[in-house]
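input
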Amino acid sequence: MLTELIKIAVNTLRSNKLRASLTLSGIIIGVFSIIAIMTLLNALQAGIEGGLSELGSNTFQVQKFPAMQVGGPGSRNKYRNRPDITYSQGLRLIEKATIYKDISLEDYIYNKTFKSSSDATNPNHYIGGVLPVYLTCNNRAVQFGRFITQTDLNNNSRVAVIGMDVVDKIFRNVNPLGQKLRVDNNEFEVIGVFEKKGEGFGQSNDNFALIPITTMQQVYGTNNRSLNIAIQAESKDTYNETLENIVSVMRSIRKDKPGEDNSFEIFSNESLIAEVNSFTKYFKYGAGFISFIAMLAAGVGIMNIMLVSVTERTKEIGIRKAVGAKSSSVLTQFLIEAIILCELGGFVGILLGLITGNLLGIYLSSPVVIPYDWVIIGVVVCSVVGIVFGVYPAYKASKLNPIDALRYE
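output
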């Protein structure tokens, strides 16, 4: 009996293609909007989390500015007015801290143009001065050649380890090892090339060169720059203890008064990801609310169309009841029609939403994702809308008096 009712409902929808299409469009738009937005947000979040997971395991960073700044000019001025973290402060931290595995001091200058004997990069590269422990603290590896050594630091050697973007742009036709890299009229010998890491957070992770931090300060001086400090704990179990020890020592070195905020920021992969998740959840709430309104409007449209359908098919209902159809069968038929409309519209909306959301995500250099939770929510919502907004028209159709229905013109 149920199979027969489904066939009748499908045939009825086929015979009223325009009306069914207009009803479907409302459902498709509602489901499409929520799935497309949630797919895009999940893709962006996955891309951001991948980009933020650049520190080594059990590692956190100390720096002057927060990794993510939210707020007006007042909050930015607060960070800008902090004293820079200096190289001497970094050395004192290495000397005074008691609980850590490695501490990497890092000094960066951005918006630089790298040159070889025949080519030059765009001015969107950066150069950094680091210690040999940089690799473990930043989850990087050298693909070929070697990394900076303590001897290079002691001798202020003019050597550089470069990212793969630099190789692709100015050393693509030669072996980069032993070549000369020119930055601001300073020459450095290329001694190594990093493994390619790709993009993260919409930006390249391979457009840089690293030199010994002592050479960096000899060439570029020490003024108007604040160091980043990466600290790696011995293990996950000692991570919190290491963090507390570093904060305590840094406050002492920078003379932060008791009761005052730190004059520096601490961040890790986990804290950044948590902050991103906290930030994106408000977009999800907003998208969910907008999509709820769209689905509500689509549900009202379904109810309206089904009521019109009941009026148009009054005589058909009368004939069916006159030859023995039960009220429950008529109710089920109209309810099935509403549910089929919602589920079909939901399926099309989900498919279009996934495609659109991922295409936008790919354009923004994010991975392809399928938000299974929101797909399930979309299917459930479509079913609920079909049932809730189809019940009244179906009930009205099932309660028609067969004699009155047969007389209806």
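quick obs: The chain has a mean pLDDT of 82.
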